TrEMBL record:
PANTHER family named among the record's database cross-references: INTEGRAL MEMBRANE PROTEIN (AFU_ORTHOLOGUE AFUA_2G17475), INTEGRAL MEMBRANE PROTEIN (AFU_ORTHOLOGUE AFUA_7G01610)
Residue span, TRP C-terminal domain: 439-532
Protein name: DNA, SC138
Pfam families: TRP
Highest taxon in the source lineage: Eukaryota
Keyword terms of this UniProt record: Membrane, Signal, Transmembrane, Transmembrane helix
Species per Swiss-Prot/TrEMBL record: Aspergillus oryzae (strain ATCC 42149 / RIB 40)
Length: 577
């Protein structure tokens, strides 16, 4: 107990005086807890500090400030009141009064009538420190905080305290999905190049459907990026997620062009992590995610995302030009025995075509979903910003919709959608299967749900569930013609994850311990999909190709399997002939 550790008490007391402490959002206690409260104390602030500097001990410090209804703290003996807590992880108590190290209370030093309330000395302040076994990273402490005076509870608040997940976990959560995405694109690209039977990487003839200018150098990269974006953006729903869940999926913000707080911040950035605790207090999911990230406001994040998108497009153009210049310079020096005459105008035209398709792919495929979601969130901020800002955001989404519709129409008329979308292409029942073509517009519905419906978490879930059911219905409609197992599996996984997210609806009344279990399961499911759906899949393609070269697999069968399953569906006979 604390009275046995006088030196420790002195050290902790000095520590409490020097730290600023992080803001902690106060929640209502359960009805059973409120029933035994004599509410004579009105809280105004709750702050916390997590000290992880000690090798074998972690210290949680809390500071509670507020007023007594009678404004007569001294007469009530308010300085004798003490904080009492019960913090739970997965329903198990990990911090109770048995772990108390230090506790103190003080009535206001200054009169709240004569001095401004911005001065903390006009409030009654209570402090307490507790020892923890460890920092409980990747956990959320579901905490009940009571203020007791003369063995009577005079106040009760609940709080979900989320410790910082740590630099190691942050790096893993950022780096592993990024590595999976890059590895998927590189392996699939290498297999595609080798399957071209030695043809030049940069040679794309329109007469040859297998070397269409619309084809990507890194097939499969976009599909992995889409799923990573799904992980992040569903973590931005207006739901009561456990703190560790939103902090974990927030590490994937890079996938949605949220890279850093520039170039626009208006000199304001959320603190993010303060004193090893996430300091958040928001109404909508997007804004709360920005607070977990320590980012600027969502209005500025949209501007920054547009700037980052422009920089990515510029990078694609510059890289494409450099590659073409290097290739052209190399071809100017004929090799021994070569009689090939380079037609530079034709080569340049082919290069421009491929560069244009690459820009279209980045804009209308890779980053369509996050840009639509961020843009459609801007009308909710129209009250605080000029009208032209909302007009620009909505107009940009409309322009993207028209552009994507034209691209899809242009590609499907020649059955070339698989070259552009790769595994993101959907099966078609006939050349006039407009229902399947509308599936390419699903990202706009998801963006509408995630961005425009931030005021209703239930509405977001219903629209997202409808999107997955619509995809599964269209796949089932075309099942006898083309069996899209990959699309069906991913849509089913997304449907299950969104359905499980109903546990985070405030009206569901699920306890924090059960919410944490659901959050851990969803994170595990995401990890399983990334490894099995992308890493194992591309390794399987590589092994099949190697075995076909070694003669263990019929090369024609392997090549036919590539053309039928390399996209997420078996292509129709009209395409493979």
């Amino acid at each position: 107990m604390w009275h046995r550790n006088n030196f420790g008490v002195l050290l902790i007391s000095l520590l409490l005086l020097r730290v600023h402490a992080a803001f902690i959002r106060r929640l209502e206690c359960s009805s059973s807890d409120d029933a035994v409260i004599d509410p004579i104390f009105e809280p105004s602030s709750l702050r916390g500090y997590l000290d992880t500097k000690h090798a074998n001990k972690t210290i949680l410090s809390l500071t509670l400030g507020g007023d007594y209804e009678s404004h007569n703290c001294e007469a009530l003996g308010g300085a004798l009141a003490r904080i009492s807590i019960d913090a739970r992880v997965l329903g198990r108590s990990v911090v109770t009064d048995d772990r108390l190290l230090d506790s103190s209370g003080a009535c206001p030093e200054l009169s709240p009538v004569d001095y401004p309330r911005s001065d903390p000395r006009t409030y009654a302040m209570y402090r307490a420190s507790y020892s923890l076994d460890h920092a409980y990273r990747m956990n959320t402490l579901a905490t009940t905080i009571r203020l007791r005076l003369n063995d009577t509870d005079i106040h009760c608040n609940a709080a979900n305290i989320t410790p910082y997940i740590g630099a190691t976990a942050s790096g893993v959560l950022k780096g592993v999905p990024l590595a999976i995405m890059i590895l998927t694109g590189v392996i699939n690209g290498a297999v595609m190049i080798c399957r071209s039977r030695g043809r030049r990487v940069f040679r794309y003839e329109l007469a040859n459907a297998s070397r269409d200018p619309a084809e990507s150098y890194f097939p499969g990269l976009g599909d992995c990026l889409h799923y990573i974006q799904f992980i992040f953006l569903t973590g931005c729903l207006t739901l009561s997620y456990p703190g560790f869940f939103r902090a974990s999926v927030g590490e994937l913000a890079w996938s949605s062009l949220i890279l850093r707080n520039w170039p626009v911040t208006h000199s304001f950035i959320y603190p993010g992590v303060e004193d090893n605790i996430y300091a958040v207090n928001a109404t909508y999911g997007f804004e709360e995610m920005a607070q977990y990230l320590g980012a600027t406001t969502m209005s500025d994040l949209w501007t920054n995302a547009i700037v980052n998108l422009a920089l990515v497009l510029l990078g694609v153009i510059v890289a494409s030009q450099l590659v073409w210049l290097i290739k052209s310079a190399w071809q100017l020096f004929p090799t021994r025995g070569s009689t090939h005459i380079i037609d530079l105008p034709t080569e340049f035209l082919t290069h421009i075509q491929h560069m244009g398709w690459s820009v279209a792919r980045v804009l209308l495929n890779y980053f369509l979903h996050p840009i639509v979601a961020l843009s459609l969130y801007q009308p909710l901020l129209a009250t605080w910003y000029p009208v032209y800002r909302t007009f620009l955001a909505v107009s940009f989404v409309a322009a993207l919709a028209v552009s994507l519709a034209f691209i899809v129409w242009y590609l499907v008329k020649d059955d070339r959608q698989n070259n552009f979308f790769y595994k993101g292409a959907y099966p078609r029942n006939s050349s006039h299967d407009w229902l399947s073509d509308t599936l390419y517009m699903v990202p706009f519905l998801r963006g509408l749900a995630i961005g425009a419906l931030q005021t209703s978490g239930l509405g977001q879930i219903l629209v997202l569930i409808s999107c997955e059911l619509f995809i599964l219905s269209c796949l089932l409609w075309n099942w006898r013609v083309q069996r899209a197992w990959r699309h069906a599996c991913f849509a089913t996984v997304r449907l299950v994850i969104v359905g499980m997210s109903c546990a985070f609806l405030p009206r569901a009344g699920v306890h924090e311990g059960n919410k944490a279990l659901v959050g851990y399961f969803i994170i595990s499911l995401h990890a399983a999909v990334l490894f099995t759906g992308f890493i194992i899949d591309c390794l399987y393609e590589m092994v099949r190709f190697v075995l076909s070269k070694l003669g263990f697999v019929d090369p024609r069968a392997a090549d036919m399997d590539h053309h039928s399953d390399k996209a997420p569906v078996r292509l129709s006979p009209s395409f493979t002939t």
